[in-house]
Amino acid sequence: MTSLLSLVRRYQLTAFFSLTIGLTWLAFIPFYLSNGDSIPWFTFGPMVSGLIVAAVSGGWSSVKAILGAMVTWRVRPIWYVVAFGLPFATQLTSILINPLFGAAAPVWSNVPALSEMLPIIALYAIFSGPLGEEPGWRGFATPRLLASQSALAGSLILGVIWAIWHFPLGLVGDLSLYSTINVVLAGVVFTWLYQNTGSVLLAIIMHVTHQNSVRFLGKVFTGGDYVQQQWIAVAIWAIVAVAIVAYYGTESFVRRPRTQLAVAGAL
């Protein structure tokens, strides 16, 4: 037992990723094999795993850091605009562009009324990923990855693992190539948001907005038009990710003041 705890402390990220995938997949696959359609997806796997590994490796102080980031709300207002607005704007822009590539006009009447969406969005925020995932991906994994990796490398590593974590959903037709690529690209954008705010709460908000803008605004198209629109959205996310790297560089995704740059150059 002591040797196992020592390994967890030494290889925190490996322990976290292994436990996250293990908890989620082991809750999913047996139900899939027995039922085949109505299956649970344990979205709290990343959060539970992050808190467990944090407790084992760093005690209460490490757990407290994750919990504190989950309620960190005092950030510059512009980051709330980013968290709420960027995913929505990406989805809306892809909808408006889609007819230029031969899609039918969007049917806006297919989007449910706001009063119908809000209760569903609240439930999805808790049980469909944002609350269960972000404390693990951003609160636990991101700071530890960036301790030894550049922001770009860490984002891509986490994005690929985040995508792999979703793989069993392909068994029930709830996974596509465009959504997989989007998750990897989102890894870059979410790291940028977290690096500039230190807030898991903002990451949860962005996750909610991204997930539900696709879920509800995407209803304006069906069939091939919907698939094409989602590919356009992926292209826009790619442009955003490239713009982040081009402006901030690859190391931290944080713009350092000119005085700090001058001092660094002098050294």
Automatic annotation (TrEMBL):
Residues 119-210 form the CAAX prenyl protease 2/Lysostaphin resistance protein A-like domain. The chain crosses the membrane at residues 12-33, 39-57, 78-97, 117-133, 145-165, 230-249. It comes from the Bacteria. The keyword Coiled coil does not apply. Keywords: Membrane, Transmembrane, Transmembrane helix. InterPro entries: MmRce1-like, Rce1/LyrA-like_dom. Pfam families: Rce1-like (PF02517). PANTHER family: PROTEASE, PROTEASE-RELATED. This is Type II CAAX endopeptidase family protein. It comes from Mesorhizobium huakuii.
